[in-house]
Specification:
heterodimer, A: 256 residues, alpha/beta, Rossmann fold, 9 helices, 12 strands, globular, B: 353 residues, two-stranded antiparallel ribbon, 4 strands, binds adenosine-5'-triphosphate, binds magnesium ion
């Protein structure tokens, strides 16, 4: 039985730099997985290769039994895999709600019988879900960085993904807001309806710098360092892993 | 390079006082032939209607979708020449050649779009600039018996027998074409999703892709729409003047569309119409006056003044003056109202934007 989502020997080179080096892992349908690593360890690059914004140099990505390597980003989204950007990419001059309405126009949803008419209501529910409904009618350019991060999340969940990849969703949020978003991610993961917003109960891959924010919500953690996967397992074990401690404290790794 | 051009536009439908002005404008245009039968005035408005279709089609492609096209004359010329050739070799009526010419221009839009898909911003613009010039050279190079050479394909049948018939035909086609394009680009529409998607493609193509939008398909669609309506304008123009000449492919034609739209207000549809109906008659009315030789200079000065003092365009600026957005429900209200017409929020202390 093939895994729900699987990355196999994925490598991405930028000229001489190997940003992602032969990474393999898999995610089950009901998991929330964290991906951590120091600055420049290739987390964002890995995600961009998965969602089709970058084309990996080699390796495979499989999702729900399909090989989605080198697929166009919109096909990936339409297959049920949505991601957010670390460097936020809102539609700046459109109202916040219109940003989310674009996600609601995804063929994945319209094919299911929801029609353009219902998008504003649904977009509003998505904004409500991440907690920025009060800014709905302002141009996205007016939002603070933390709110833009939440807008990214709202836009991604409006496409009703089955696997949601969040690139540093807590960046720019204060601890209280972090807690709030983390809780709503937990709720989203359980699935169900939030007003008109439908949740498939997506599996999640959450990228963060530090593990502390993730500890409570993730089932497993992947650790990247210099593009290589150095640890994979439950968070309690990973924090004790010497290789991980080395990577974060920056000491020379002794030659094994 | 083009970021500054778009400014902060308001999206949505043409509301309250603006709507009244639009209705008054069309009523005036419709009764004008009953008031005057001055042929040159009628001819001028007929041409302005054709150019309005052309300018609005540029706004859809370049303003809304952000594919800034410096060679929009390609579609005008392809529309003109295809209807000319269809008449010359098949003897068909304008009723057939105009729609067919528009379809061929839409096809031209799709074809030019394919190499243009990989380019963005100034590079795209420069590439598109080359296409009509290239086609004009080709037209001049092939034997005049086929494409008319430097003169063009002459002796095309008129659109209608009388000036008034031509006038009404063009005005009605303009009205319908503008309404269709307005609906297609209306981001607030309940039934059409293209408007919102065009906006998204312009704002951030990568983000649009990652939100599940097939941006390639929608860019092709925008080029096809731009080409189709640009082609209608070109075909009408050819039949109106009874000649399809290389001037329809000229650089002047491309840039006039841009000037009209920016003068009136980009990303607004109505701005393009206002731009054409202000600048085109202005230049025409100065013909034969003492400042005849300076009429394009005067137009250029006006455009520069507008760009300096109201970069959002004259029509958009006026609309901002006479309308005010309700701070609560964002519905547009006449600026002299005290309460919002929908949610009755107090409007008296809302600052002018
Ligand atoms: N488009 C690119 N071209 C060349 N090099 C790149 C490109 N994108 C990323 N890199 C390099 O790849 C490496 C990995 O970068 P990446 O952004 O994936 O790291 P990250 O783990 O997301 O870091 P952070 O925690 O700062 O977000 C870095 O050394 C970066 O400089
Ligand atoms: Mg990153």
């Amino acid at each position: 039985m093939a895994a729900f989502f699987e990355v196999e020997n994925l490598t991405k080179r930028f000229g001489g730099l190997v940003a992602v080096d032969n990474v393999s892992f898999s995610i089950e349908r009901d998991e929330i997985v964290g991906l951590i690593g120091p600055n420049g360890s290739g987390k964002t690059t890995l995600v961009r290769c998965i969602i089709g914004i970058l084309s990996p140099t080699s390796g495979r990505v499989r999702f729900k039994g399909q090989d989605i390597t080198h697929w166009r980003p919109w096909k990936v989204v339409q297959a049920g895999l949505a991601g957010t950007f670390q460097v936020v990419k809102p539609f700046r001059r459109l109202p916040v709600i219109a940003n989310v309405m674009v996600g609601c126009l995804c063929p994945r949803i319209t094919r299911r019988g929801e029609w353009v008419k219902s998008t504003p209501v649904k977009a509003r529910d998505a904004l409500e879900f991440v907690g920025i409904m009060d800014r709905a009618l302002e141009p996205a350019a007016n939002l603070s960085h933390g709110d833009l991060k939440r807008l990214e999340v709202a836009r991604a969940i409006s496409t009703e993904p089955e696997l949601l990849i969040l690139d540093e969703p807590f960046g720019g949020l204060n601890p209280a807001e972090t807690d709030l978003v983390a809780k709503s991610m937990k709720r989203l993961h359980k699935g169900g309806r939030f007003g008109r917003l439908h949740s498939e109960g997506p599996a999640m891959l959450i990228i963060e710098h530090k593990l502390s924010d993730l500890m409570k919500i993730v089932d497993k953690v992947l650790v990247l360092n210099y593009g290589q996967l150095i640890a994979y397992g439950p968070p309690e074990e990973v924090v004790k892993d010497p290789a991980v401690i080395e990577a974060y404290t920056g000491k020379e790794v002794p030659i094994a | 390079m083009f970021r500054g051009l778009f400014g902060n536009f308001r999206w949505g439908v043409l509301p309250v006082p603006g709507r009244v002005i639009a209705v008054v404008f069309f009523v005036i245009i419709f009764v004008l032939p009953l008031i005057t039968d001055d042929r040159s005035t009628l001819h001028m408005i007929t041409l302005a209607s054709i150019f309005a279709i052309f300018a609005v089609s540029w706004d859809v492609l370049s303003g809304y979708t952000g594919q800034v096209n410096f060679g929009h004359a390609l579609f005008f010329g392809v529309g003109a020449y295809s209807s000319g050739l269809l008449y010359r070799f098949l003897g068909w009526d304008p009723a057939v050649t105009v729609p067919l010419g528009a379809l061929i221009a839409a096809l031209a839009g799709v074809v030019t779009c394919l190499p243009a898909l990989r380019l963005r911003g100034p590079y795209l613009s420069l590439l598109t600039l080359a296409f009509p010039l290239l086609l004009a050279e080709i037209v001049r190079a092939i034997p005049p018996e086929i494409a008319g050479g430097y003169v063009g394909i002459t002796g095309l049948p008129r659109l209608a027998a009388t000036p008034m018939g031509r006038y009404y035909l063009c005005v009605v086609i303009m009205l319908v074409a503008v309404l269709v394009m307005w609906k297609l680009t209306d981001a607030g529409s309940k039934y059409v999703r293209t408007g919102l998607i065009f906006h998204a493609v312009r704002e951030d193509e990568i983000a649009a892709r990652a939100t599940g939008i097939n941006t390639i398909r929608y860019k092709i669609l925008a080029f096809a729409i731009g080409g189709f309506f640009g082609g209608i304008a070109g075909a009408l123009y050819a039949h109106l003047l009874t000649v399809a000449g290389p001037g329809t492919l000229g650089i002047m034609m491309s840039f006039q569309a841009i000037i009209w739209v920016i003068f009136g207000g980009i990303v607004s549809i109505y701005g393009a119409v206002v731009g054409v109906f202000t600048l085109y008659p202005l230049v025409e009315l100065l013909r034969g006056t003492p400042v005849h030789d300076y009429r394009f200079l005067i137009m250029a000065l006006m455009v520069i003044i507008i760009l300096l003092f109201m970069p959002e365009g004259i029509a958009v600026r006026i609309r901002d003056k006479i309308e005010r957005q309700c701070p609560r429900c964002k519905l547009s209200n006449a600026s002299w109202r005290r309460q919002c017409r929908a949610c009755s929020a107090d409007l008296r202390y809302v600052a002018d934007s």
